[in-house]
TrEMBL record:
Ranges annotated as spanning the membrane: 62-82, 94-113, 133-151, 157-178, 209-229, 241-262, 274-300, 307-325, 331-352
Biased composition (Polar residues): 360-391
Keywords annotated in UniProt: Membrane, Transmembrane, Transmembrane helix
Membrane topology designation: Multi-pass membrane protein
Any matching Pfam family: TPT
Domain Sugar phosphate transporter: 70-347
Region (Disordered): 355-391
GO cellular component: membrane
Name this protein carries in UniProt: Sugar phosphate transporter domain-containing protein
Source organism of the structure: Gossypium lobatum
Length: 391
């Protein structure tokens, strides 16, 4: 057997020759180098996701403003239709408990992500005070719970009218908290958006005293909630999923406290059959996607832009229903929607221009400076590259 093996190897060597043996060795070497490079890339990506700064860079790389806003837009439209089904046809008239189910499912999914090591790392505890996390979780409970309660007791038009007040509230709060100002052109664009949405929804202003109080109480928590989400992600290296993981248990606690005050009794007597449970579970899954996409949008843009996106959604649904579904909201409402869309376009273009100008200021500009250099053999002209930074 040993002679046969030696003879086989000799036959293989004679057939391949020296070049063939070198080719096999080179292929083995190339495969080894490729595998080593792949392993190094995998290790570097893993290490990148194991730090809060790296995870934030990956979020910004794969989910920019356009992707985040588009994701949030489609999820928001989907959850509106699903919640309309749950509140209307299914008859689940418990808005706080429905919000609680949304956050409970979100927390369960985040726990699974953490078990599978898919959850991005949070920044060090010393960089973000625990009071900020607690405040955000509490305000989120009031913002989400009061929003669904307002939708229950008020018409969609009155809900949108209340949402208009969120925009100036955000501008004022950002000025008080962060001394942040906006340009006069943006003020005019936001004014056009608010006026257009007001005209578009003025024909649907049905409400009662309790619903109006809920809507007014929702404005301030909604504004502060958006500001905190945007601020923590942009200034403290938080990713959307990591911040959701920290705040969701606090939100669930406060929603449990709100249930006896705002929800009617009888949630345990509801008909929990397969059809109704699947509809409510679908709403809860979309609630997780809505919270995630909203957090991504707030991290990629700003609180004001996120509110404008919500108003854009209302106008698109109104105009789209008229074009595609033959609905007739009236000439006044359509004119207001078109006017609001024009204002949103101007506001978006101003944002893009400011973002482009800000990025240009961060890029070093290389300017050639002619300089004469003298050597031992004589003088010769050379070009020296001078790097300057725009401030």
């Amino acid at each position: 057997m040993q002679i046969s093996s030696v003879g086989g190897m000799g036959l293989l060597d004679s057939l391949l020759g020296a070049d063939g043996r070198k080719s096999f060795k080179r292929k083995d070497s190339d495969a080894g180098e490729a595998g080593k490079a792949l392993e190094e890339l995998r290790g570097s990506l893993y290490n990148e996701l194991r730090t809060s700064e790296g995870a934030k860079r990956q979020q910004q790389r794969f989910c920019g403003p356009v992707v985040a806003m588009t994701f949030n837009f489609f999820v928001a439209v989907g959850i509106i239709l699903t919640n309309k089904l749950v509140m209307g046809r299914v008859g689940f008239n418990f808005p706080i408990f429905l919000t609680l189910l949304h956050y409970a499912v979100s927390w369960l999914l985040l726990a699974i992500f953490k078990t599978l090591s898919w959850l991005p790392v949070s920044p060090p505890a010393k960089t973000t005070p625990s009071s900020s996390i607690f405040l955000l979780g509490a305000i989120m409970a009031f913002a989400s719970g009061l929003a669904n309660t307002s939708l229950k007791y008020n018409s969609v038009g009155f809900y949108q009218m209340a949402k208009i007040a969120v925009t100036p509230t955000i501008v004022l709060a950002e000025f008080v908290l962060f001394r942040k100002t906006i340009s006069f052109k943006k003020v005019l664009a936001l004014g056009a958006v608010s006026a257009g949405v007001a005209v578009a929804t003025v024909t649907d202003l049905q409400f009662n005293a309790f619903g109006a109080c809920i809507a007014l109480a929702w404005i301030v928590p909604s504004a502060i909630n958006k500001i905190l989400w945007s601020s923590l992600q942009q200034q403290a290296n938080w990713t959307a999923l990591a911040l959701m993981w920290k705040t969701t248990p606090i939100t669930i606690f406060f929603l449990l406290a709100l249930m006896p005050w705002l929800d009617p009794p009888g949630v345990l007597l509801f008909k929990w059959d397969i059809s109704n449970s699947c509809a409510i579970l679908s709403s809860a899954l979309l609630g997780f996607l809505l919270q995630w996409s909203g957090a991504l949008a707030l991290g990629a843009t700003s609180a004001t832009s996120h509110v404008v996106l919500g108003q854009f959604k209302t106008c698109v649904i109104l105009v789209g229903g008229y074009i595609l579904l033959d609905s007739d909201p009236g000439l006044v409402s359509l004119s207001g929607a078109v006017f609001a869309l024009a204002g949103m376009s101007v506001y978006t273009s101003l944002n893009l221009k400011e973002s482009k100008d800000g990025s240009n200021k961060q890029i070093p500009v290389q300017t050639p400076v002619s300089k004469t250099k003298t050597s031992e053999n004589g003088s010769e002209d050379s070009t020296v590259i001078k790097t300057t930074n725009d401030v």
